[in-house]
Amino acid sequence: MNDQRVLDWSEATWLNPPLRTESDGRDLVVTTRDRSDFWRTTHYGFERDNGHALLTGLAVGTAVEVTFRARLDQPYDQAGAMVRVDEQNWIKTGVELTDGLPHLGAVVTRGHSDWSLAPVPEWADRPVTVRVSRGRDAVTIRARCGSEPWRTVRLAPLAGHLTASAGPYCCSPEREGLRVQFSQFTVGPADRALHARLAG
């Protein structure tokens, strides 16, 4: 997982530009618009496709890593990485505030969204890195806090013939003004195996 190339923020394209961005030449601080989100139908009955994602191509055999830090203090504040085919086919993964705690999770959407998550209260207000790695028929999602070991978050199907993009994303479904500091955006080769100890 070390042969990564650092992307300049200008090398990627915004899907739904945020309220504001600020950069010191290295980090990118993003401020969200009001009630921004990505979700399709399931349970809630609504569709939202107005969250913020800064995307670059994700070909089969490549991976994207995103590092971010955010003070998530309102329900459903969230940040991480997105994999996008179109408005009905996408994955978002990262940390989201729900039930009063930060949770590590993923939403996989193929017409309808699903949601898997696990509490990570010890990750609050700390740098988190999310890695999405694309194989010939699936995306492997891993995450870690600081320099801790990688955790496998999800293995999700993604057909190899589809054109996809990936990169940092953030949303604030219940408010305006979540600030997320993205400190790294890299691309490189995909993991060679599902399990992290074999994936290097």
What can you see in these coordinates?
It comes from Kitasatospora cystarginea. By secondary structure, the protein is mainly beta. It has a single domain (5-191), classed as Jelly Rolls. The protein has one helix and 18 strands. The chain has one helix at 196-199; strands at residues 5-6, 13-15, 20-23, 28-31, 38-40, 47-49, 52-57, 62-70, 78-86, 89-98, 101-110, 112-113, 116-119, 128-134, 138-145, 151-157, 165-171, 179-189. It is globular and about 40 Å long.
What's the quick description here?
The chain contains 1 helix and 18 strands.
Tell me the layout of helices and strands.
Elements: E1 5-6, E2 13-15, E3 20-23, E4 28-31, E5 38-40, E6 47-49, E7 52-57, E8 62-70, E9 78-86, E10 89-98, E11 101-110, E12 112-113, E13 116-119, E14 128-134, E15 138-145, E16 151-157, E17 165-171, E18 179-189, H1 196-199
Antiparallel strand pairs: 1-18, 2-7, 3-4, 4-18, 5-6, 7-17, 8-14, 8-18, 9-10, 9-17, 10-11, 11-12, 11-13, 14-15, 15-16
Organism: Kitasatospora cystarginea
Pfam families: DUF1349 (PF07081)
InterPro entries: ConA-like_dom_sf (IPR013320), DUF1349 (IPR009784), UCP022704 (IPR015987)
